[in-house]
């Protein structure tokens, strides 16, 4: 009787799932991991080194709560204001012909190209107490520079193109026959706008508002110049993070950054849900 040699231990089947993944998918996953996912993971890992009690104490400190309020509240108001006036600007650019239209259209993109520090310097000069607009508001007791109102003006300035550029193409493709048909059926101009034109525009407006809000939350260069950066007055969260870094408080900066990241992600999910709702009922 012969004894067969013992069988080698079974090895796990090689993972060949990567073979079935196309190269565009591989490149996409690699690029997103390097540019987006790994930096976010690094922030979360750094923040996780703090105990839950210490994390909560830093995240809910009075100065941090005040900075969240100024940052998210002002950014939301700025995005909503741009949702109204950005739509109006897009309407004028699409529906009207006037001299220097191309120049005005190109100027809309100026906040994209202008360095944010230059934008802050310009706004602080114009809205300062002795500036062109600030001097007109000063007699009424309205101060813009070095106040929360100045933070709002800076956020409106840098987020305006997002609404205009998202609404403009939708307005350009909208058929004028729909308006004429509504007028022939007896609808007024306001009823035509409210019931015929606005519903298809809502998803584009919400998209622009979401993008503008995200841009305003992360703004630093212009707001740090036009604001006084005083806690409980006009200090925004990005500046608070920088102040913590200057104090070598890396843990505090990371915790506040994590909170900023979480709230921004949550608000973007809500806005995306609103966009999907708008597309369904438009």
Automatic annotation (TrEMBL):
Its main location: membrane. The keyword tRNA processing does not apply. Residues 68-271 form the ABC transmembrane type-1 domain. The chain crosses the membrane at residues 23-45, 76-94, 106-126, 146-164, 250-274. One of its GO terms (molecular function) is ABC-type sulfate transporter activity. InterPro entries: CysT_permease, MetI-like, MetI-like_sf, Sulph_transpt2. The keyword Protein biosynthesis does not apply. GO terms for cellular component: plasma membrane. It is found in: Cell inner membrane. It is a multi-pass membrane protein. Keywords: Cell inner membrane, Cell membrane, Membrane, Sulfate transport, Transmembrane, Transmembrane helix, Transport. Pfam families: BPD_transp_1 (PF00528). PROSITE patterns: ABC_TM1 (PS50928). Part of the ABC transporter complex (TC 3.A.1.6.1) involved in sulfate/thiosulfate import. Part of the ABC transporter complex CysAWTP (TC 3.A.1.6.1) involved in sulfate/thiosulfate import. Probably responsible for the translocation of the substrate across the membrane. Belongs to the binding-protein-dependent transport system permease family. CysTW subfamily. NCBIfam families: 3a0106s02, permease_CysT. The complex is composed of two ATP-binding proteins (CysA), two transmembrane proteins (CysT and CysW) and a solute-binding protein (CysP). PANTHER family: SULFATE TRANSPORT SYSTEM PERMEASE PROTEIN (PTHR30406), SULFATE TRANSPORT SYSTEM PERMEASE PROTEIN CYST (PTHR30406:SF8). This is Sulfate transport system permease protein CysT.
């Amino acid at each position: 009787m012969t004894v067969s040699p013992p069988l080698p231990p079974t090895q796990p089947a090689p993972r060949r799932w990567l073979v079935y993944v196309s190269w565009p998918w591989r490149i996409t996953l690699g690029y997103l991991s390097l540019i987006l996912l790994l930096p976010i993971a690094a922030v979360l890992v750094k923040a996780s080194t703090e105990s839950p009690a210490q994390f909560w104490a830093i995240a809910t400190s009075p100065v941090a709560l005040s900075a969240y309020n100024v940052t998210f509240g002002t950014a939301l108001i700025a995005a909503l204001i741009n949702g109204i006036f950005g739509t109006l600007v897009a309407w004028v650019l699409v529906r009207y012909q006037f001299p220097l239209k191309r120049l005005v259209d190109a100027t809309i993109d100026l906040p994209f190209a202008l360095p944010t520090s230059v934008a802050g310097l310009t706004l602080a000069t114009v809205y300062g107490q002795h500036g062109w607009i600030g001097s007109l508001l000063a007699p009424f007791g309205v101060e813009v520079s070095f106040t929360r109102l100045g933070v709002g003006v800076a956020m409106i300035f840098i987020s305006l193109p997002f609404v205009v550029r998202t609404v403009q193409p939708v307005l350009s493709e909208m058929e004028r026959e729909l308006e004429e048909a509504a007028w022939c059926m007896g609808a007024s101009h306001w009823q035509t706008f409210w019931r015929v034109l606005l519903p298809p525009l809502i998803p584009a407006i919400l998209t622009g508002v979401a993008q503008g809000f995200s841009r305003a939350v992360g703004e630093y260069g212009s707001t740090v110049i036009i604001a006084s950066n005083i806690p409980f007055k006009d200090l925004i969260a990005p500046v608070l993070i920088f102040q913590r870094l200057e104090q070598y408080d890396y843990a505090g900066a990371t915790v506040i950054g994590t909170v900023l990241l979480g709230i921004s992600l949550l608000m973007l999910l809500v806005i995306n849900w609103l966009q999907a709702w708008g597309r369904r009922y438009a």
